[in-house]
Amino acid sequence: MSAKIVREQVISSALQLLDMLGMEGLTMRKLADMLDVQVPSLYWHFANKDALFEAVADTLLEQVATTTVVAEKWQEMFFRISCEVRQALLAHRDGARFLARTYPLSDNVARISSQMISSLKEAGADDRTATWGTFSTLYFVIGFTIEEQAFAEKRPDHNQSPDLQSLLLRYPVAALAWHQILQSDPDEGFHFGLKMSLQGLAQNLHTLEKERCEMSP
Length: 217
Prior knowledge:
Layout: H1 3-21, H2 28-35, H3 39-42, H4 49-60, H5 74-90, H6 95-102, H7 107-122, H8 127-153, H9 162-170, H10 172-183, H11 186-215
């Protein structure tokens, strides 16, 4: 059996464990048991536990930003890629939390961020704006998806908790917001926050362009 196939089997089995048991259940011992090997055998293809988990996290994003859309504006690209990242993380239990925990500097992460950064620079962003504009957007996507998956895993019900019911009675504005969240489609909240982020970034680019024009002789 080739080394490549064995490596892929380890990653595939790790993803299966993640789906079955969640992030806390994905351990080296359980992964070795699933593959019917000893734990040291896992390190044949990975330098250590962190390297293995980074490879698993990177695999979560392997189908993101793999297509090119001709004449796509940066806002459209950011929206499309952000939605692809979210869906890729939602496809696996605790996917967003696992990615945030490992934060791999890997091929798929580099490909995604490079496309986003390049699109901003082509639109007139300087290096600082292009970098933080890209990663602030990705941080929003990951953070929102962490909350979304946690919410779906254990959806709270304010009617079942006297303490929470009393708290919401004392803070009616928060109660209204809570009901809004409970009744909303997660897509609505995600798209709302993402569009706000992109609008702010667009305004930042507009300000940069205005400053350049004012400085021009």
